[in-house]
Write a structure and sequence with these properties.
alpha+beta; acyltransferase activity, transferring groups other than amino-acyl groups; Plant_Fungal_Acyltransferase; single chain; Chloramphenicol Acetyltransferase; 31% helix; CAT-like_dom_sf
């Protein structure tokens, strides 16, 4: 009966466009099929009692400054494309931010769920995943996808603050079509400045009206056509498409059916543990480097990617070729964007691909880390970045600029690294501290700064598998990761953490 009611129920009517609203476009890396399905939730944990109204008013004030106003707009659809409509003036009836505040007259450790929010221990550890704490960000009317926002005259950003007697949870929700993790970093930094009365120091928003990713490759190239001097995408021959993509999809679906659901958990790695991993990886990389005198450079990110990949591979029942998909942000690689003195409030993440043979996938930590670094450097030259963007333009004709490289029988490992976004250290809410919640030698973060944060999309995707997010470095240089793995891989990872003790 429920299915019948849904079938014959009248479709909701999109909210009316309001005359006088300022219209901002969404760009080629924003308005994608994937991002339309993703409402992002973020909860920032503070071991202080914060003034909720100060946080709300300062965020609202920020969204009145220049093109920061874009973040206070409403999602609308025009000729099949999404765009942002911003009221000329924000009012109580049409605010910049949807705000709710919940006050609980208990300490955070007295709450049956909040008491389990991860805290940094002294040793490597597994801790609960973010979905355990949904209640602090999700309510009955929280939008699940960007389509839900089409039928309301509601702001894109929701702010929900939960106050305990000794702690505060500050949660944000917005559609992924709006911006990425680097956009969040810019938001947190600017929000902190306004909170401190330093509005004059807020950086201007760059590229709010034009797609800077496309403009960086030039007008002709932005049309998807290459000048004669331009390079082709060097990994194009490894594209998985057509019947090979169908085969990959069938194999992936069969593995989901056979292996069952994955679990998402948080991983804590102390700075010393990562330092030891990196030292081991550098020594192993020397053994496979092209020059015996060469000390190859590999980053913490390369080492963590290799470590995670080895764990996944070791949990598989048979050898397979492996593709590591690593998200990277054009802000740090495309010269024209690196030179900016402002901030970009949009999505600017694309991907590199590292290809491992079955033998190399079971090789040393250092050899995998070095291969990952080499693939990153080869695929992020300026000509190759332009080739990537031309491919994106061509694929975006149907609103779906996503593509996959590797082999149809590959094991796909996905890694996202937010360490450069410095999310845990970007918000300084010191001026909003009413009283400290944690004091003494156990405290490991400055007043008004995060002790932890967690993230999850509103809409769960059963297809998510073998995914690692390097969430953050904390104030002492320790790493927080998030992983989505099969139980057998978690068993391997638990043994690995025990070996680090």
């Amino acid at each position: 009966m429920d299915a019948a009611r849904k079938l014959f129920r009248a479709k909701p009517t999109p909210a009316l466009k309001v005359d006088g609203d300022d219209v901002y476009p969404l760009f080629v890396l924003d308005d994608t099929k994937l991002y339309r399905e993703l409402m992002l939730t973020w909860t920032f944990c503070f071991n202080d009692v914060l003034d909720a109204e100060k946080l709300h008013s300062s965020l609202s004030k920020l969204l009145e400054i220049g093109d920061w106003r874009k973040l206070g707009g409403r999602v609308r659809k025009n000729n099949g494309k999404f765009e942002i409509h911003v009221p000329p003036t924000f009012t109580p009836q049409r605010p910049a931010v949807a705000f709710t505040h919940h006050v609980l007259d208990i300490s955070i450790d007295e709450h049956p769920v909040a008491k389990s929010i991860p805290k940094a221990p002294q040793q490597p550890s597994l801790q609960p995943g973010p979905h355990v704490f949904r209640e602090f960000v999700v309510s009955s009317d929280t939008p699940v996808t960007v389509f839900d926002l089409l039928y309301r005259d509601s702001p894109q950003i929701s702010l929900r603050i939960t106050s305990f007697t000794d702690a505060s949870l500050v949660s944000l929700v917005w559609p992924h079509t709006l911006m990425d993790a680097l956009g969040l970093q810019a938001l947190l930094e600017a929000w902190s400045l306004v909170l401190a009365g330093r509005e004059s120091e807020v950086l201007a928003v760059v590229g709010a009206r034009e797609d800077v990713a496309l403009m960086s490759v030039g007008p002709r190239r932005a049309s998807g056509k290459a000048d004669e001097a331009e390079e082709d995408l060097k990994i194009a021959h490894k594209r998985v498409q057509g019947v090979w993509l169908i085969l990959f999809g069938l194999r992936f679906l069969w593995s989901l059916f056979w292996d069952g659901p994955c679990e998402t958990r948080s991983i804590y790695l102390p700075r010393e543990a990562v330092t030891r991993l990196r030292g081991r990886a550098v020594e192993e990389a020397k053994a496979v480097a092209s020059s015996a005198d060469e000390t190859p450079f590999i980053s913490d990110g390369d080492v963590l990617t290799a470590w995670f990949t080895k764990l996944v591979v070791s949990s598989e029942p048979r050898q397979r070729p492996v593709t590591i998909l690593c998200a990277f942000n054009l802000r740090f690689w495309m010269k024209s964007l690196m030179q900016s003195t402002g901030v970009y409030l949009q999505n600017l993440a694309v991907a590199t691909f590292t290809f491992l043979s079955p033998v190399l996938a079971e090789g040393s930590l250092g050899s995998i880390a070095l291969t990952n670094r080499q693939n990153l450097l080869e695929q992020t030259t300026q000509p190759q970045l332009r080739a990537i963007m031309r491919t994106v333009v061509n694929e975006s004709q149907d609103g779906n600029p996503t593509f996959l490289f590797g082999q149809s029988n590959m094991l796909l490992v996905i890694v996202t690294n937010w360490e450069k976004a410095k999310i845990m250290t970007s918000a300084d809410f010191g001026p909003a501290v009413i009283r400290p919640g944690e004091t003494g030698a156990t405290r490991r973060n400055p007043p008004g700064m995060m002790s932890y944060f967690y993230y999850f999309p509103m809409k769960e995707n059963m297809m998510t598998k073998n995914v690692m997010v390097v969430s953050a470095k904390d104030h002492e240089g320790n790493y927080w990761l998030s992983g989505t793995l099969l139980p057998r891989a978690w068993a391997k990872l638990r043994l690995e953490l025990e070996a680090m003790l």
